[in-house]
Amino acid sequence: MVRDSFIKSLIEIVGESHVECSEAGLMAYSFDATPNFQSKPDVVVSPANTEEISQIVKLCEKHQVPIVPRGSGTNLAAGTTPTQGGVVILFNRLDQIIEIDEENLTITVQPGVITKTICDTVEAKGLFYPPDPSSMKISTIGGNINENSGGLRGLKYGVTKDYILALEVVLPNGEVIRTGGKLAKDVAGYDLTKLLVGSEGTLGIVTEATLKLIPKPETKQTLLAIYESIDQASQTVSSIIANKMTPATLEFMDQPTIHAVEEYSHLGLPTQAEAVLLIEQDGPHSVVSEDIEQIALLCRKEGAIDVKIANTEEEANRLREGRRAALSAIARLSPTTILEDATVPRSEIAPMVRQINRIAEKYNVRIATFGHAGDGNLHPTCMTDARNQEEMERVEKAFEEIFAYAIEFGGTITGEHGVGEMKSPYLAWKVGDAGLEIMKNIKAAFDPHNIMNPRKMFAKETRKRIAL
Amino acid sequence: MSTIQKDFEERIEENELLNCMRCGFCLPACPTYIETKSEIHSPRGRIALMKAVRDGDIDSYEQVEESLNVCLGCRACEPACPAGVNYGHMLEEARAIFQEHNKPSIKEKTVRKTVFKQLFPNQKRMEQATSLLSFYQKSGLQKTSRKLGILKLFPKHMQQMEKALPQVSKAERSADTVFKAEGDTKATVAMFRGCLMDTMFHETNQSTIKLLNKAGCDVVVPNTQNCCGALHGHSGEKEGALDLAKKNIQAFEDVECDYIITNAGGCGAFLHDYHYLLRHDSIWSERAKEFVDKIVDFSSILIKLGFIDQHNLQVSPQYVTYQDSCHLRNVMGVYKEPRALIQAVQGGSLVEMEKADSCCGSAGIYNITQPDMSMQILDHKMKHVEKTYAQTIITSNPGCLIQMRLGIEREGKSDSMRAVHLADYLLEALVN
Ligand SMILES: Cc1cc2nc3c(=O)[nH]c(=O)nc-3n(C[C@H](O)[C@H](O)[C@H](O)COP(=O)(O)OP(=O)(O)OC[C@H]3O[C@@H](n4cnc5c(N)ncnc54)[C@H](O)[C@@H]3O)c2cc1C
Ligand code: SF4
Ligand code: SF4
């Protein structure tokens, strides 16, 4: 619990109307999108600028009060659940686009800008900001940067880290630093920009970011392929890549997902199908239509039972509908939905999905998998009920085994959602004990008093590794 | 355990609350979140607060109630929600519980009693009340009081509101309640006239009937029908709403019809919810289901019967823009049909405003109970309207219509801009 005098000092910094400590207010900030995590902060503040943030951080350092930076609270790793109480810092007043530089192809923004606003704004100028997490309508760029979020366009265009050129950051001692610049090349010292990207609010507070833009692709075309065997779908992905094509989107749904989608939106997907691929290519007209034709050919050659190419935007929307409905369909089937993001090299997708389905059966839990086939980023999603203790234990065991297999296949426990508090007990499984140690040392160098988002990323204890 | 908590436990289903996975996808759709950028005023925040009450995790009920009061009830959060959370139903139940436990001030009591128990459930009194308004307008008193500034005693926006109210003519109901189709009868429909529509917007109802006749509908207007109960339901007066629902179901069972037509999104959506409202009553819920299955908005039926192919529609050259009625769009899922109708009119060119699907801040009696938020939302809405250069704002709901007129008044644009109901606009186009 923080003292009244602490609250008073906060009010002096940001003004009374920007400090929230009513019971309902704290309750409204006690959770993010992570199931089963809830805990109230002591106070919620909305600073107006970097200077105020710096003062807040200094105050918190002095009183050893935890700080939880919070964008839109859509992360799935309990990254913004204030389990240690403290101050939640919002960026809802830092939501301005500062500059679009059409000469250097950059955009400079405050951390509270919504991802989709950035995309729309630059596209209106014929430019393109590719990272497009499914949550982009509400996620903030500060959250994207701190989770290093990916999206549907990841295979061809990369993820958030590939577009962050420069940052302004308030360090845990209140000092303000600027990293990087509007530069394609910069090797002056350690690359702090890259280190801060994906740091989940544990190293500092991002108060401004300069993002790289690229020219907007001329056009886009969409194709849907349906398979009776998941191996054929997986083989198609490999041959597309082997044929030196990089589709903009290469999305995948497995059989349980197809069943859920059919149950919910009756799109007429054959339920005997084991896999569906949604493939999109963008670029110049000539290249796109040639690529799509060739991809369609490859799909058929590898054994697709049906291949549909959209000729109009309307048709494209219809083809996208199934993949778009995947989460909705799954979420409606049960009270609790747990969305994971175990990731493997793309060559291992078929064996991984088979393992997931086997594991689901073994623990008698319902898991549907969809995701980004192009980059091996899978979303095994569990439909369960958090009130059922016994089932939740089985769910946890199933996910542990899924993580273990992902690592076994050369993959990772999380491809884009982050570690947060939820997956911190498994971090060492991926990075090893020595890896974890050096990460902890980096954290201590930035934040010796451990006030920045404590308990995130680093658990008290690593979960006992399971034998496969 | 407090009695409020107990009521929440009994009347708000845990499953429904847990269905919210807190993904936040509803946030960008929620007007009060957009205005405040605060989770206290977001759909998932409100759901969390209702859950906290149910679970006994919060004591400050008045803060929870305040959050629910600021909610517009526009239900834009529902179509945005991947998990299919039935927010509107939970909201209504929670408000009803708070309402039942409240000790309202004498003044509020009197107003509520007049509005909910005496005025709205009673068609005759509504007629008299609007006749008073009519008298007030026709007698020149309106002009005098405007000049004298008597209305200055009211908050600013109430003065503007007074100007935004329509000119009413006394609702003279012809004894004849069947209006025959022009040409062959393609369908027999029963018209839900709605209390506000029947009085303040009586002419719009007449327009609607004419359009339906032209489209080939025999239109019956059952005389025993009543107010839909939406204002009661949305304000926590649940018993009153239940009573009106039963009366209406009975009234429409008594006539033979293929469809029940509404021309007010707010009423339509509430009628649509009768099945849910009466879910605990085994006999009535069956009857309600049959009733609900017949409800359609007039725009859907016009499209269905090919109205735009049969008739030439023409207005003088102008830009028009369409403001969705929240409940028509979010609950009844009707948003394409009104646009298709508008686009079929020659001369009027439709320019979509940004966020046409977002609430205008009218929301029943919200613009009276939450004036500040309502006006903030309205002023932002008018900025979007302005960018379209529209001379005509078209809507499909009386509340929205009054609010848009209020918006025009606030912007000082009453010389160059007008707000009309879709039915009136179409009739104007037909006559031209
Ligand atoms: C349905 C659903 C779908 C999703 N789809 C995707 C997807 O396709 N791809 C993907 O990558 N993710 C996805 N996510 C996860 C989530 O949306 C992303 O992680 C997103 O980037 C979070 O943004 P936010 O603004 O909500 O950040 P928050 O959740 O508020 O915060 C995320 C992290 O960043 C930190 N943080 C936020 N702002 C700052 C700042 N200014 N300075 C320092 N630290 C800060 C927080 O402390 C926290 O650790 C999805 C989530 C949901 C619920
Ligand atoms: S969109 Fe639905 S599930 Fe997601 S937070 Fe809002 S109400 Fe909850
Ligand atoms: S009903 Fe409207 S105002 Fe209320 S929570 Fe939903 S979107 Fe927000």
From TrEMBL, chain A:
Question: Is the keyword Secreted assigned to this protein?
Answer: no
The keyword Membrane is annotated on this UniProt entry: no
Alphabetically, the GO molecular function entries are: (S)-2-hydroxy-acid oxidase activity; FAD binding
Tell me the cofactors it needs.
FAD
* Residues covered by the FAD-binding PCMH-type domain: 37-216
Q: Matching Gene3D superfamilies, A to Z?
A: 3.30.465.10, 3.30.70.2740, Vanillyl-alcohol Oxidase, Chain A, domain 4
InterPro entries for this protein:
FAD-bd_oxidored_4_C, FAD-bd_PCMH, FAD-bd_PCMH-like_sf, FAD-bd_PCMH_sub2, FAD-linked_Oxase-like_C, FAD-linked_OxidoTrans_Type4, GlcD, Oxid_FAD_bind_N
Q: Name one GO cellular component term.
A: glycolate oxidase complex
Keywords on record: FAD, Flavoprotein, Oxidoreductase
Q: Family assignment?
A: Belongs to the FAD-binding oxidoreductase/transferase type 4 family.
PANTHER family from the xrefs?
GLYCOLATE OXIDASE SUBUNIT GLCD (PTHR42934:SF2)
Q: Which NCBIfam families match?
A: glcD
Descriptive protein name:
Glycolate oxidase
Please name the source species.
Answer: Piscibacillus halophilus
TrEMBL record, chain B:
- This protein's species is Piscibacillus halophilus
Q: Does the keyword Repeat apply?
A: yes
Q: What does this protein do?
A: Component of a complex that catalyzes the oxidation of glycolate to glyoxylate.
Q: Which PANTHER family match?
A: GLYCOLATE OXIDASE IRON-SULFUR SUBUNIT
Names of the cofactor(s): [4Fe-4S] cluster
Give the record's cofactor note, including how many are bound. Answer: Binds 2 [4Fe-4S] clusters.
Q: Which GO terms describe its molecular function?
A: 4 iron, 4 sulfur cluster binding; glycolate dehydrogenase activity; metal ion binding
What does the record give as the organism's lineage? Bacteria, Bacillati, Bacillota, Bacilli, Bacillales
Residues forming the 4Fe-4S ferredoxin-type domain are: 10-39, 62-93
* Domain of life assignment: Bacteria
Enzyme class, spelled out: oxidoreductase
Q: Which UniProt keywords apply?
A: 4Fe-4S, Electron transport, Iron, Iron-sulfur, Metal-binding, Repeat, Transport
Q: Which Gene3D superfamilies does the entry link to? A: Alpha-helical ferredoxin
Reaction catalysis annotation: (R)-lactate + A = pyruvate + AH2; glycolate + A = glyoxylate + AH2
**Protein name according to UniProt:** Glycolate oxidase iron-sulfur subunit
